[in-house]
């Protein structure tokens, strides 16, 4: 799942970036409202973590833009503003949850999972393709009744292809889904993850469209 982290504190931001990546999330970190707006306009995020007091504005002002672009995005406000009025305002503006600093990382991860679960319930909890089932909250995959273990980025690639089945996704589009903005990507990275999917889920699942990219056909 791709996460947008909007936090201007360099120490907190860097620690959250490292912790979330360790948990298998793809994270884009921005320190201001303008940069976060641009990221939200050009990239689809499953979860957004947004601070309120940003150098160039109020973090809550980002929420309507996120909701307009994708109503299923899970949004968690992370802030030091802790009055009941502040919490009510954040939730009324469209946030799924409101977490007051300082917070424990395990609690943040739990709230992110809960926001993702609510998002999946709104949009349909499981992804299905033939006898393939994916639980986006638990990050589990089944082929028939058999559970299939996938490396984190191979899993992310599978979800992206399933959600866009019937469309050809270019290597660049898949790299954007798999890696944080600015991270150096090896030239054969996508091919490696496609190989993992074919080896564990069958060679016919992911089809190469020569000169264009990859697709999972709409008909299972």
In words, what does this structure look like?
- The structure is a single chain.
- The protein is built from eight helices and 13 strands.
- With about 220 residues, the chain is of the alpha/beta class.
- It starts with a strand and ends in a 5-residue tail after the last strand.
Provide tags for this entry.
alpha/beta; 13 strands; 8 helices; 5-stranded parallel β-sheet; 41% helix; 22% strand; 220 residues; single chain
What layout of secondary structure does this protein have?
Elements: E1 2-6, H1 10-22, E2 26-30, H2 33-42, E3 47-50, E4 53-54, E5 57-58, H3 63-69, E6 74-79, H4 84-92, E7 97-100, H5 105-123, E8 127-129, E9 132-135, E10 140-143, E11 146-148, H6 152-163, H7 171-178, H8 189-201, E12 207-209, E13 213-215
Parallel strand pairs: 1-2, 1-3, 3-6, 6-7
Antiparallel strand pairs: 4-5, 8-9, 9-10, 10-11, 12-13
Number of helical stretches of at least 4 residues: 8
Radius of gyration: 18 Å
Total count of strands: 13
The quaternary organization reads as single chain
Q: Unreliable segments (pLDDT under 50, ≥5 consecutive)? A: none
């Amino acid at each position: 799942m791709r996460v947008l982290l909007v936090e201007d504190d360099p120490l907190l931001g860097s620690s959250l970036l490292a912790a979330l990546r360790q948990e298998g999330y793809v994270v884009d970190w921005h320190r201001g409202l303008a940069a976060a707006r641009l990221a939200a306009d050009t990239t689809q995020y499953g979860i957004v973590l947004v601070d309120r007091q940003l150098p160039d504005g109020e973090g809550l002002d980002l929420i309507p833009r996120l909701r307009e672009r994708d109503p299923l995005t899970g949004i968690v406000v992370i802030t030091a503003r802790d009055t009941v009025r502040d919490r009510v305002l954040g939730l009324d503006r469209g946030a799924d949850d409101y977490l007051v600093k300082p917070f424990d990382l395990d609690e943040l991860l739990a709230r992110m999972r809960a926001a993702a679960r609510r998002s999946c319930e709104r949009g349909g909890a499981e992804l299905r393709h033939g006898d393939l089932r994916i639980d986006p909250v638990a990050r589990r995959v089944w082929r028939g009744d058999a559970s299939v273990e996938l490396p984190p980025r191979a899993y992310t690639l599978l979800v992206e292809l399933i959600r866009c089945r019937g469309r050809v996704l270019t290597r660049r589009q898949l790299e954007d889904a798999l890696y944080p903005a600015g991270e150096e990507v090896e030239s054969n990275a996508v091919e490696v993850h496609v190989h993992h999917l074919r080896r564990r889920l069958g060679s016919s699942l992911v089809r190469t469209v020569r000169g264009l990219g990859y697709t999972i056909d709409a008909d299972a």
